[in-house]
Sequence to fold (284 residues):
Amino acid sequence: MMSTSDAPLRIGRIDYANVWPVFHEFRPERLECRSELVYGMPAELNRMLRTGEIDVSAVSSFAYGLNADDYWLLPDLSVSSFGRVQSLLLFVKSPMEKVRFGKIAMTTTSATTVNLLKIVMEKFYGGRPVYETAEPDLDAMLERADAALLIGDHAIRASWREHGYRVLDLGDLWRLWTGHGMTYAVWAVRRDSARRHPEAVGEIYRALLASKRRSAENPEPLVSEAVRRIGGTESYWRCYFAGLSHDFGAKQRAGLSLYFQYARELGLLAEPVSLTDWPDAVYA
Fold:
């Protein structure tokens, strides 16, 4: 159901570590506008933004591509990397020749990553594997598959284990094959919500930019939070956050446009995708 004019604007928040730099210093309770944070996995928030159950959200880039005519991008916000991302990992049990036409188990929590995997396997490696959905349990996935895709914190934790599998980073593979960075998520607002509540959306947008800026200036609170909640070492998390970009400038747009082009060539998207910013956006 669409939000009414007197309802709070609902803001979708993925709680993966890769979005923390945008959200860590974001305090909805300090805003003048009425707002509410809604936590969810990427696939759930993608659906909720599409149906109007939330108004603004970090969404999988692919989900933006499917619904670009209904959304505007909030400029200069994304989850991107130029090379290794460390949280989109393909754990390979069999030789790549077998994987190319074998079975890959994968979670369904991120449409962008699932389709990035298809682009990598089919356009870059020339394969045509069978994709099987599964819960994010590495051992169980690889009992019946030649490779397994994990994303987010599940991928990070699995990468710390002594598992004996070859690990391929999808961000690294994308850069090696294309020379571009990859954008995994963007921040989008429903056009109808932005038209009804431009001032509130503007306040939320500026607060998100300010949070991103503060985290970039001082990432140590993110590092401490990650060690506390997920584990690992401070040095790992400093490297992890340093490898991410939360900007969305010309480089990120070029990489994402190429991703959408490949997705169309594989029949994953029916129409070209326009990267259209919210026209009323005013930078903080």
Remarks:
- The first helix runs from residue 20 to 23.
- The chain has a mean pLDDT of 94.
- The domain at 88-178 is CATH 3.40.190.10 (D-Maltodextrin-Binding Protein; domain 2).
- The first strand starts at residue 9 and ends at 13.
